[in-house]
Amino acid sequence: MKRDVQATEAKHFFSPKSYVDKQGREVLYGLDWRQRKGELWDRARGLCEEIVGWDDDTEENPGQFDIPVRCKSEGHDPHHVRPRSKGRDDSLANLKLLCRMHHELLDKRKPMWRKS
Q1: Once rounded to an integer, what is the mean pLDDT over residues 26-40?
Q2: CA atoms of 54 and 56, how far apart (whole Å)
Q3: Alpha carbon distance 70, 53 (integer Å)
Q4: Is 47 in a helix, a strand, or coil?
Q5: What is the per-residue pLDDT for 1?
Q6: Where are the alpha helices (DSSP H) in the chain?
Q7: Is residue 24 within 8 Å of 41, Cβ to Cβ?
Q8: For the chain, N or C: smaller number of CB within 10 Å?
């Protein structure tokens, strides 16, 4: 990936490894990644962002679209909506905070280690 030097400098990243590429994707390391996870936690208010259903609120909003219902579990894991393997993007728009159950359901990859 080629770095966009001007966009990278404008972001004022802490880690010299963090950068913005020519397509506008953010690649974050160290303190920048920890800070992004904090922003994600704040956006999600600490709760899983997975949509688990739809509430038909016709009494209060007749004729309106259904309202999404989020999982009520505590969020634990940042999840890349577009997988990192398909063009890494650590921007907030490409991240969801998920509980462990939903992260396991959405991300089938398993760690390649086992207890001794």
Answers
A1: 97
A2: 6
A3: 7
A4: strand
A5: 64
A6: 5-11, 30-44, 100-106
A7: no
A8: C
Closest CA to 94 of 23, 15, 2: 23
- Give me the half-sphere count of Cα atoms (radius 13 Å) on the Cβ side of residue 55: 10
**Which pTM was predicted?**
0.81
Res. 64 pLDDT band, cuts 50 70 90 = low
Tell me phi and psi for residue 102, to 5 degrees.
Answer: -70, -35
Q: Count the Cβ atoms, other than its own, within 10 Å of residue 71.
A: 17
Which amino acid is it at 41? W
pLDDT-derived band at 67 (thresholds 50, 70, 90) equals confident
Q: What token pair was written down for 98?
A: 């998920």
Name the residue type at position 83.
Answer: P
Residue 66 CB contacts under 8 Å (≥ 6 apart), including other chains: 54, 55, 56, 57
